[in-house]
Design goal:
Number of strands: 16
Number of helices: 12
Strand content: 25-35%
Largest sheet: 8 strands, mixed
Shape: rod-shaped
Distance between the termini: 79 Å
Structural class: alpha+beta
């Protein structure tokens, strides 16, 4: 076995030779199949464009996985946002006003559980009628550090302390306290704090962080102060939005909070800060964080999804292939029947889009459909049997025996040497070979090559029909 034979055996791209159905038609095609092709492929194309549009506009939701982790260190500077705003729900005077002050708010920095600095938080005007001024701890700096080394920065929290206006302290900050009678009347009424807590949420469509503002209300009893611990939960986000390969971008933000309340000791507040407290709020970072992995669909997954839908739609093509196969069989059988029953050529058969016969006309005269179909179905079954390979070999063997009966064996053997000689000018200048001399003796030419060809006979009959019609038109006056 030589190299060429080995290469031929290894060829995985071999093709089968397919005989045409008739002339150049390698496949049978119908108008119904063409219409189905347009509809199915249009649906596939429309779905593909629709999915690409959804993908480009980020309307296909990404895959999001969340995992809660414990963190040992994190620092957050709220320089461009205020995560907390507090106002007082009251009737009458604004309790935070410096002209007639009832409640004063102080901000205390706490480093590693120790107060390092204390400052007055001035009220900011409120935009909501019927509510007090706002207390906003601006430029908050929070650090979570549970390590003993205290590196790179120690644990830092913020503490808001709300106390009854003290004339001694008020004098230092140029604040005018309300009178004792007004303060007594104020303390006798029911009041409450509104906590406006701001955190963020990731918008998967626009790929931006949106602010969420939530209101918490806490009732205030001046004779039973409360302590609230506000812990911000941090989300560490990894977004993979690359079109082809994995590539993540990292971001961290406040995604939630937890608010826990408990009683606050007045005596402790007086001893520590010299302030008669009504409420205290400790602000810090929760050690429990959330890790979010957000993965947007890749181009490959979009194409795979479109391909699966296209495959599902194209399964409908099986139905049309069955219809085309039925019509092909009917057409071939009818063609074969015209060879044996020439009158079938003059039949005019109208069918619906599924190939079912509606009416039949012979020589422009309508014939009984039921009677025709009975005979036609019998002939169709017989034609199917004739078209089988076994039957064709059988009929050829009968022809062979007929030839043997009417011709001598030597004459039949001589047919293997018969052929048509090529008409080429080169034969004039060359010495004729034995084959050339034998072919010259036979009275055959190129026309004999197609003497039994259906195409040639159909063309000849068409020419004769045209000539006949022309003569008839010339004979008419």
């Amino acid at each position: 076995m030589n190299l060429m034979d080995i290469l031929k055996k290894l060829d995985q791209f071999g093709v089968m030779f397919t005989l045409p159905i008739k002339y150049k038609d390698m496949k049978y095609k119908s108008a119904l199949g063409g219409l189905a092709t347009i509809i199915l492929y249009s649906c596939n194309l429309a779905y593909f464009i629709y999915k690409i549009y959804l993908w480009q506009t980020r309307q296909i939701l990404p895959t999001i996985t969340s995992q809660t982790n414990s963190i040992n260190y994190f620092e957050k500077n709220f320089t461009n946002q205020n995560p907390l705003a507090i106002n007082f729900f009251y009737e009458g005077d604004d309790p935070f006003s410096y002209q007639k002050n009832y409640i004063t708010c102080f901000y205390i920095d706490i480093l590693t559980s120790q107060a390092t600095s204390i400052k007055l938080l001035p009220p900011m005007p409120s935009k909501i009628e019927g509510q007090s001024s706002l207390i906003i701890p601006e430029n908050l700096q929070l650090v979570l550090n549970v390590n003993k080394q205290q590196l790179p920065k120690p644990n830092q929290q913020g503490f808001l302390l709300f106390g009854i206006c003290n004339k001694t302290t008020a004098f230092l900050y140029n604040i005018t306290c309300a009178s004792d009678i007004e303060l007594s009347q104020f303390l006798s009424k029911t009041h409450g704090f509104n906590f406006w807590i701001t955190y963020q949420m990731f918008n998967a469509q626009s790929q931006t962080l949106e602010k969420i503002e939530q209101l918490q209300y806490l009732n205030l009893d001046f004779y039973a102060p409360f302590f609230a611990q506000l812990s911000f939960q941090i989300s560490e986000q990894y977004v993979d939005d690359n079109l082809f390969y994995t590539s993540s971008s990292h971001d961290s933000y406040v995604s939630n909070y937890k608010l826990i309340t408990q009683p606050l000791s007045k005596q402790l507040s007086l001893l520590t800060y010299g302030i008669e407290a009504v409420a205290g709020i400790l602000i810090g970072i929760s050690p429990n964080s959330v890790r979010e992995n957000i993965s947007y669909p890749k181009l490959g997954s979009i194409l795979a999804d479109v391909g699966s839908i296209m495959s599902a739609l194209l399964t409908l093509s099986i139905l049309f292939q069955i219809i085309n196969g039925h019509q092909l069989e009917d057409r071939l059988i009818f063609e074969v029947l015209t060879y044996y029953f020439p009158e079938y050529k003059n039949l005019s058969i109208k069918r619906n889009m599924f190939g079912k016969i509606k009416n039949i006309r012979l020589n422009n005269q309508e014939i009984d459909k039921d009677e025709f179909l009975i005979q036609y179905e019998q002939l169709k079954e017989q034609a199917r049997n004739k078209l089988t390979v076994v039957n064709q070999i059988y009929e050829l063997s009968r022809i062979q025996f007929i030839l043997l009966k009417h011709f001598k064996r030597d004459q039949i053997i001589e047919s293997h040497n018969m052929g048509i000689q090529l008409k080429l000018n080169c034969y004039q200048d060359q010495e004729l070979t034995q084959l050339d001399k034998r072919l010259q003796k036979q009275d055959l030419n190129a026309d004999d090559f197609t003497i039994f060809t259906l195409k040639k006979i159909e063309t000849q009959l068409m020419i004769e029909d045209v000539d006949s019609r022309r003569r008839l038109s010339e004979e008419q006056p």
